[in-house]
Amino acid sequence: MFKRYLKSILKYILELLIVAFGVFLGFYLSEKSNQEKVDANTRNALEQIIAEMKANARILESAVAYHEQLALELDSALQGLEGEDFRLPYYGNPKINHNKLPSWKGVGTVRLSETIYESAKISGVFQDLNISTIQLISSIYEFHDVYAEFTKSTVDQLLALDSESKTGDVLELLGRLCKYDIVSIERGLLGDIQKQVVELENRLGTDAYRK
After folding, report:
1. Which residues cross the membrane (predicted)?
2. Stated pTM of the model
């Protein structure tokens, strides 16, 4: 009788263990599957961010090349100016007109894409990246804001020019655009993007972007 009772208890315990193991195994496999999906999404998002940064770098390369060419042409045009010319109204000054520069096609500043970056933030992808990787990415996109602010300020001032604007003031703005502030920011941002892309690709290859 006791043996039969003991055997029954052992049977129930064994069945309980089997059920518990089945539940545990199901939970483990489900968690593993979910983690694999998260890892795949995180990797895909990082790949897309890198692609977006590369596209922005190509845009900046064109902007830098354009502004550097304008700088050369502007310097050439300035050689014919004398001191008094800088104090004359810009519009109507026969010696200088930026619209007549051979390469002039407008201010040539660019709008950099942030679509993938913003989507990644909204979707929570950054939660699965380590801090240093987030900082690498964020620093670049924060630099976008600096570029956008300087660009807007300069373009707004160019658009505000009127018949009273002096030649020297206009040339100062054009210099900011293609010789100093704007093009310098473009070069700096381009260099940073290229550097960070290399680092992010290295991390992608070694999974060093994970928490």
Report:
1. 12-29
2. 0.85
